[in-house]
Specification:
190 residues; alpha/beta; 5-stranded parallel beta sheet; 3-stranded antiparallel beta sheet; 4 helices; binds 1-O-pyrophosphono-5-O-phosphono-alpha-D-ribofuranose; binds uracil; Bifunctional protein PyrR; transcription regulation
Protein backbone atom coordinates (compact mmCIF):
# COMPACT_ATOMS: atom_id res chain seq x y z
CA UNK A 1 0.00 0.00 0.00
CA UNK A 2 1.58 3.28 -1.03
CA UNK A 3 0.37 6.07 1.21
CA UNK A 4 1.65 8.68 -1.23
CA UNK A 5 -0.69 9.08 -4.18
CA UNK A 6 1.78 8.57 -6.96
CA UNK A 7 0.91 7.83 -10.57
CA UNK A 8 2.05 4.46 -11.75
CA UNK A 9 3.10 3.73 -15.31
CA UNK A 10 1.27 1.01 -17.23
CA UNK A 11 3.36 -2.16 -17.58
CA UNK A 12 4.51 -3.02 -21.12
CA UNK A 13 2.14 -5.94 -21.58
CA UNK A 14 -0.88 -4.21 -20.01
CA UNK A 15 -4.13 -4.94 -21.84
CA UNK A 16 -6.83 -2.30 -21.49
CA UNK A 17 -9.95 -4.00 -20.14
CA UNK A 18 -11.97 -0.86 -19.51
CA UNK A 19 -11.59 2.72 -20.73
CA UNK A 20 -12.78 5.99 -19.16
CA UNK A 21 -16.32 5.64 -20.56
CA UNK A 22 -16.68 2.14 -19.15
CA UNK A 23 -15.53 3.36 -15.75
CA UNK A 24 -17.90 6.34 -15.86
CA UNK A 25 -20.87 4.09 -16.72
CA UNK A 26 -20.03 1.69 -13.90
CA UNK A 27 -19.67 4.53 -11.42
CA UNK A 28 -23.10 5.91 -12.39
CA UNK A 29 -24.62 2.46 -11.90
CA UNK A 30 -22.94 2.00 -8.51
CA UNK A 31 -24.08 5.45 -7.34
CA UNK A 32 -27.68 4.56 -8.21
CA UNK A 33 -27.39 1.14 -6.59
CA UNK A 34 -26.15 2.75 -3.38
CA UNK A 35 -29.14 5.09 -3.39
CA UNK A 36 -31.55 2.22 -4.05
CA UNK A 37 -30.06 0.01 -1.35
CA UNK A 38 -30.02 2.85 1.16
CA UNK A 39 -33.38 4.20 -0.03
CA UNK A 40 -31.84 7.63 -0.45
CA UNK A 41 -29.03 9.46 1.26
CA UNK A 42 -30.16 9.17 4.88
CA UNK A 43 -27.18 8.64 7.23
CA UNK A 44 -24.99 7.72 4.27
CA UNK A 45 -21.21 8.21 4.57
CA UNK A 46 -18.74 7.28 1.83
CA UNK A 47 -15.22 6.31 2.92
CA UNK A 48 -12.61 5.79 0.21
CA UNK A 49 -9.61 3.56 0.85
CA UNK A 50 -6.40 5.24 -0.30
CA UNK A 51 -5.00 5.39 -2.71
CA UNK A 52 -7.48 5.09 -5.53
CA UNK A 53 -10.58 4.41 -3.50
CA UNK A 54 -10.45 7.99 -2.24
CA UNK A 55 -11.05 9.76 -5.59
CA UNK A 56 -13.60 7.08 -6.49
CA UNK A 57 -15.54 7.87 -3.30
CA UNK A 58 -15.55 11.57 -4.23
CA UNK A 59 -16.83 10.71 -7.71
CA UNK A 60 -19.65 8.64 -6.24
CA UNK A 61 -20.56 11.53 -3.94
CA UNK A 62 -20.69 13.88 -6.95
CA UNK A 63 -22.92 11.44 -8.85
CA UNK A 64 -25.20 11.10 -5.82
CA UNK A 65 -25.36 14.90 -5.52
CA UNK A 66 -26.35 15.11 -9.21
CA UNK A 67 -29.07 12.50 -8.74
CA UNK A 68 -30.49 13.59 -5.38
CA UNK A 69 -29.29 17.15 -4.80
CA UNK A 70 -27.73 16.06 -1.50
CA UNK A 71 -24.06 16.27 -0.56
CA UNK A 72 -23.23 13.08 1.32
CA UNK A 73 -20.19 13.16 3.63
CA UNK A 74 -17.04 11.70 2.08
CA UNK A 75 -13.88 10.69 3.91
CA UNK A 76 -10.77 8.55 3.64
CA UNK A 77 -9.89 5.51 5.70
CA UNK A 78 -6.20 4.66 5.80
CA UNK A 79 -5.77 1.00 6.71
CA UNK A 80 -1.97 0.82 6.90
CA UNK A 81 -1.75 0.27 10.66
CA UNK A 82 -4.45 -2.41 10.52
CA UNK A 83 -2.87 -4.59 7.81
CA UNK A 84 -2.30 -8.20 8.82
CA UNK A 85 1.16 -8.12 7.19
CA UNK A 86 2.29 -4.99 9.05
CA UNK A 87 4.78 -6.94 11.16
CA UNK A 88 6.45 -8.22 8.02
CA UNK A 89 6.66 -4.70 6.51
CA UNK A 90 6.87 -2.37 9.54
CA UNK A 91 8.22 0.65 7.65
CA UNK A 92 5.24 1.33 5.40
CA UNK A 93 4.30 5.01 5.08
CA UNK A 94 1.09 5.79 6.94
CA UNK A 95 -1.58 7.70 5.07
CA UNK A 96 -4.33 9.78 6.51
CA UNK A 97 -7.75 8.96 7.83
CA UNK A 98 -10.32 11.69 7.51
CA UNK A 99 -13.84 11.00 8.71
CA UNK A 100 -15.98 14.14 8.45
CA UNK A 101 -18.96 13.04 10.58
CA UNK A 102 -19.76 10.64 13.38
CA UNK A 103 -20.07 7.08 12.15
CA UNK A 104 -22.38 6.04 14.98
CA UNK A 105 -25.62 4.88 13.39
CA UNK A 106 -24.41 5.74 9.88
CA UNK A 107 -24.50 3.54 6.81
CA UNK A 108 -20.88 3.49 5.73
CA UNK A 109 -20.01 2.57 2.17
CA UNK A 110 -16.36 1.61 1.85
CA UNK A 111 -15.05 2.38 -1.64
CA UNK A 112 -12.00 0.80 -3.26
CA UNK A 113 -10.73 0.21 -6.75
CA UNK A 114 -9.91 -3.52 -6.61
CA UNK A 115 -11.12 -6.39 -4.44
CA UNK A 116 -8.67 -9.29 -4.50
CA UNK A 117 -7.75 -11.22 -1.33
CA UNK A 118 -10.12 -9.09 0.78
CA UNK A 119 -7.38 -8.34 3.31
CA UNK A 120 -7.52 -4.59 2.67
CA UNK A 121 -11.24 -4.61 3.42
CA UNK A 122 -10.75 -6.76 6.52
CA UNK A 123 -8.24 -4.16 7.72
CA UNK A 124 -10.74 -1.41 6.90
CA UNK A 125 -13.36 -3.10 9.09
CA UNK A 126 -10.86 -3.25 11.95
CA UNK A 127 -10.05 0.44 11.43
CA UNK A 128 -13.77 1.30 11.49
CA UNK A 129 -14.18 -0.32 14.91
CA UNK A 130 -11.92 2.37 16.35
CA UNK A 131 -14.01 5.15 14.81
CA UNK A 132 -17.57 4.38 15.82
CA UNK A 133 -20.44 1.96 15.45
CA UNK A 134 -22.08 2.28 12.05
CA UNK A 135 -25.57 0.83 11.59
CA UNK A 136 -24.35 -0.92 8.45
CA UNK A 137 -21.13 -1.20 6.46
CA UNK A 138 -21.27 -1.90 2.75
CA UNK A 139 -18.58 -2.27 0.11
CA UNK A 140 -18.36 -0.78 -3.37
CA UNK A 141 -15.49 -1.74 -5.67
CA UNK A 142 -14.81 -0.93 -9.28
CA UNK A 143 -13.21 -4.33 -10.03
CA UNK A 144 -13.71 -7.65 -8.25
CA UNK A 145 -10.98 -9.89 -9.60
CA UNK A 146 -11.76 -12.91 -7.42
CA UNK A 147 -9.26 -14.96 -5.38
CA UNK A 148 -10.82 -13.81 -2.10
CA UNK A 149 -9.05 -15.29 0.91
CA UNK A 150 -11.56 -14.11 3.49
CA UNK A 151 -15.38 -14.25 3.68
CA UNK A 152 -15.77 -10.76 2.18
CA UNK A 153 -17.99 -9.87 -0.78
CA UNK A 154 -18.73 -6.52 -2.33
CA UNK A 155 -22.30 -5.15 -2.32
CA UNK A 156 -21.70 -3.00 -5.41
CA UNK A 157 -19.32 -4.14 -8.15
CA UNK A 158 -18.39 -2.28 -11.33
CA UNK A 159 -17.06 -5.38 -13.03
CA UNK A 160 -16.41 -8.97 -12.07
CA UNK A 161 -13.13 -9.67 -13.81
CA UNK A 162 -12.03 -13.30 -13.66
CA UNK A 163 -8.23 -13.33 -13.45
CA UNK A 164 -5.39 -15.73 -12.94
CA UNK A 165 -3.56 -15.21 -9.68
CA UNK A 166 -0.32 -14.43 -11.56
CA UNK A 167 -2.00 -11.51 -13.32
CA UNK A 168 -2.31 -7.99 -11.99
CA UNK A 169 -5.18 -5.54 -12.31
CA UNK A 170 -4.32 -1.87 -12.40
CA UNK A 171 -6.98 0.77 -12.04
CA UNK A 172 -5.79 4.13 -13.32
CA UNK A 173 -7.69 7.11 -11.97
CA UNK A 174 -7.34 10.54 -13.59
CA UNK A 175 -6.97 12.37 -10.26
CA UNK A 176 -3.81 10.34 -9.52
CA UNK A 177 -2.65 8.79 -12.79
CA UNK A 178 -3.70 11.41 -15.33
CA UNK A 179 -6.28 9.23 -17.08
CA UNK A 180 -8.86 6.53 -16.35
CA UNK A 181 -8.39 2.89 -17.38
CA UNK A 182 -8.43 -0.64 -16.07
CA UNK A 183 -5.60 -2.81 -17.32
CA UNK A 184 -4.65 -6.45 -16.89
CA UNK A 185 -1.05 -7.56 -17.08
CA UNK A 186 1.24 -10.33 -15.95
CA UNK A 187 2.12 -9.78 -12.29
CA UNK A 188 5.87 -9.81 -12.93
CA UNK A 189 5.44 -6.73 -15.15
CA UNK A 190 3.04 -4.86 -12.83
O1 LIG B 1 -8.08 -7.36 -1.65
P1 LIG B 1 -6.60 -7.10 -1.49
O2 LIG B 1 -5.76 -8.32 -1.77
O3 LIG B 1 -6.26 -6.46 -0.19
O4 LIG B 1 -6.17 -6.13 -2.66
C1 LIG B 1 -6.87 -4.97 -3.02
C2 LIG B 1 -6.09 -3.75 -2.65
O5 LIG B 1 -4.84 -3.76 -3.36
C3 LIG B 1 -4.66 -2.49 -3.95
O6 LIG B 1 -4.07 -1.61 -3.07
P2 LIG B 1 -2.50 -1.52 -2.87
O7 LIG B 1 -2.17 -2.23 -1.60
O8 LIG B 1 -1.81 -1.99 -4.11
O9 LIG B 1 -2.29 0.02 -2.60
P3 LIG B 1 -2.69 1.30 -3.46
O10 LIG B 1 -4.18 1.42 -3.41
O11 LIG B 1 -2.04 2.42 -2.77
O12 LIG B 1 -2.18 1.09 -4.85
C4 LIG B 1 -6.07 -2.02 -4.25
O13 LIG B 1 -6.12 -0.62 -4.38
C5 LIG B 1 -6.86 -2.52 -3.07
O14 LIG B 1 -6.87 -1.56 -2.02
O1 LIG C 1 -4.31 -7.27 -9.16
C1 LIG C 1 -4.33 -6.58 -8.13
C2 LIG C 1 -4.19 -7.13 -6.84
C3 LIG C 1 -4.25 -6.32 -5.75
N1 LIG C 1 -4.42 -5.01 -5.95
C4 LIG C 1 -4.54 -4.47 -7.17
O2 LIG C 1 -4.71 -3.26 -7.28
N2 LIG C 1 -4.49 -5.27 -8.24
Amino acid sequence: MSATHEPRPAPDDARVIWDADDIARAMRRIAHQILETNRGTHHLVLLGIPSRGAPLAHRLAALIADAEGVEVPVGELDITMYRDDLRRHPTRPVGRTRVPVSLDGATVVLVDDVLYSGRTIAAAMDALKDLGRPRAVRLAVLIDRGHHELPIQADHVGKDLPTASDEHVRVRIAEIDGSDAVTLSSAKEA
